[in-house]
Amino acid sequence: MLRNMRPILAWMSALLVAVPLGLEAAVSGATGVLGKSSELESCSQVKLRPAGQCGDEEECPYQITLPPMTIQLPKQFRLLEKTMKELQSLKETVRQLRSACLECGQQADESIRRDTSETPTKKDHGRGDSSRSAPSNSSSSNDVIQEMQTKMSRMSNSLKNARNQINTMQVKLDMMNGLSQNVEEVVDRRVANLTGVINKLSSTCSTECAAARSAPQYMIAHRDCSDYSDLKHRINGVYSVTPDVRNDTFEVFCDMESYGGGWTVVQRRVNGAVSFNRTWAEYKKGFGDLQGDFWLGNDKIHLLTKTKDMVLRIELEDFLGVREYAKYDQFYVSNEFLNYRLSLNGYSGTAGDAMHPKHDQKFFTTHDKDNDMYPSGNCGTYYGSGWWFNTCMSANLNGKYYIKRYKGKRDGIFWSTWHNITSEYYPTNYRRAFKTVTMMIRPKTYAP
Ligand SMILES: *[C@@H]1O[C@H](CO)[C@@H](O)[C@H](O)[C@H]1NC(C)=O
Ligand SMILES: *[C@@H]1O[C@H](CO)[C@@H](O)[C@H](O)[C@H]1NC(C)=O
Ligand SMILES: *[C@@H]1O[C@H](CO)[C@@H](O)[C@H](O)[C@H]1NC(C)=O
Ligand SMILES: *[C@@H]1O[C@H](CO)[C@@H](O)[C@H](O)[C@H]1NC(C)=O
Ligand SMILES: *[C@@H]1O[C@H](CO)[C@@H](O)[C@H](O)[C@H]1NC(C)=O
Predict the structure, then answer these.
(1) What is the mean predicted confidence (pLDDT) over 428-434?
(2) Staple 439 to which of 67, 267, 329, 414, CB 3.0 to 4.6 Å?
(3) Domain total for the chain?
């Protein structure tokens, strides 16, 4: 739509700006000033001059050159069909006016030639040929001038009218634009609110209703790795979990040994065997190898975090052997409808807080689905990664896995509060690479 309208608008605005300049000059010129072509030329933007050679007797066409102008369009130009049609009819009006203008031009030419006999000009193309004794304001010349004046003023009015209409439409567009942003915001807030309510209800239901139904398989369902912690031998490995009994059971990797165990691992990077430059669908479903590098999947992370309040623990190690961690007391990933929006808060740890607030409440973005806050591009495409990008990032644990420090675009795994990272001046200095990353979650209420 926008692309279709641009040439029309540009074309029309070129005509419209000529209204006050060109037509008033032409109108006053028709009453006598027009003869001084130097005056016309001093209207630097508008040029009225003969088109082609003109003999003494024949009529020759005149050409009017109108300056270009730029109209400011609203950013989000969500025009409706109606506006398009209005513009098209306006365009038609202007075209008619323009052809009327050409007609006028021809008549003006004639009157100029007559005027030149009394008011010599520098560029007088008819000099010497016209009779010096001929009176300039013969009755026929007066008729032509008056006719022209009428036409000109009619045109001027129509064009002014058209300009006013355009201005009115512009105001309407601005309003519509503001409105649609407002609506988006309101809907977003409502949906967030509703999702919160639904999550609360469904968690009440899956804990209480399931128990009430006393279906045995529900009773023994392991909702996440922490439900395996009463096993005699806590061993790291792949286990089945059912975070929501109405939904699927799926496999996860459980870290049953570190920091009290009971951790459900949602992301891990250990060897770079798996690319993290993936589509929305792949991030939704999950990819990789649960024993190696993997992303558990946004739907699963959503299910795991919606039924219980979860804490997130991030473990990072660089190739210099420095190990640090970041822990967030609150970690929640919304459903797909809300673009897997991230909520996290309550940092503690040693790695520094690179996630809050920059990535809090941000949507998930992949190279094929742009939900980031960067207006003129897709952070997921730029960094070849799926993440809760802002504009774009202060942390990206799904960046490319480099096995040693690298130069150039910072598309590797990144944690902005890491040691000495501020000395990595772009583009001269090397950037740190990370050897291992783990993101794992556990219920807030878990007691090892
Ligand atoms: C030109 O016209 C004006 C009014 O229209 C008149 O007063 C004047 O006498 C005319 N001049 C000549 C030379 O005809
Ligand atoms: C959700 O809506 C209810 C009722 O309109 C309101 O009381 C509540 O504060 C809202 N909650 C949030 C998180 O906006
Ligand atoms: C959970 O169930 C809903 C509704 O049937 C479905 O849309 C969603 O994909 C399921 N999630 C998982 C992880 O299976
Ligand atoms: C990511 O994958 C897409 C699709 O396969 C590809 O077009 C793009 O070049 C990749 N980006 C990077 C940084 O590797
Ligand atoms: C940070 O840089 C300083 C000076 O270059 C160095 O002495 C220190 O060991 C570095 N710290 C880490 C954790 O790399």
Answers:
(1) 86
(2) 267
(3) 1
